[in-house]
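# nightly structure sweep
# worker-07 picked up a monomer target from the shared queue
# config: single-sequence mode, recycle default, output format = structure tokens
# input follows
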Amino acid sequence: MSKPNIHVRFATIDEVRSIAEVLLEAFVSYKPLYTSEAFAATTLSAVEIKQRFDEGPTWVAVMDDRIVGTVAAMATENALYIRSMAVLPGVRSRGIGKMLLEQIESHAKSNGFRRMYLYSTPFLYDAINLYTRFGFIDKGEKHDLKGTPLILMEKGLSDVWG
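# output follows
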């Protein structure tokens, strides 16, 4: 059996429905842990994803011509904010999350950002472990997404040219 071909590339506007499906499938098993409002904010509709295209880049991970993961970024005052990262449950543990993070970090460094940050819910253990292995640290700040707890994680980018 051949190894599946996995690559990360910029998403296109005509893929917003597929991205929405990935977000829903990736988070649906966690739905009972979210408030209904927070779950809706996490599993964006195709219309909401399309609106985000104006706010910053979105990438997709593609395996054998199928979108299996996604992540988006948005520039803030002094950092790159990572949001809407998801990998389909059936293809986790294949390095796709790491590939998405590597793409984001490359983008951040090439655009002069000195740090990246994201929010995660404390019950997404595998995601938090991935972020930690990738160099993110829990800043100890607790936040709230429509009644669901969030933690802030950050990674400094020390080797940015400038």
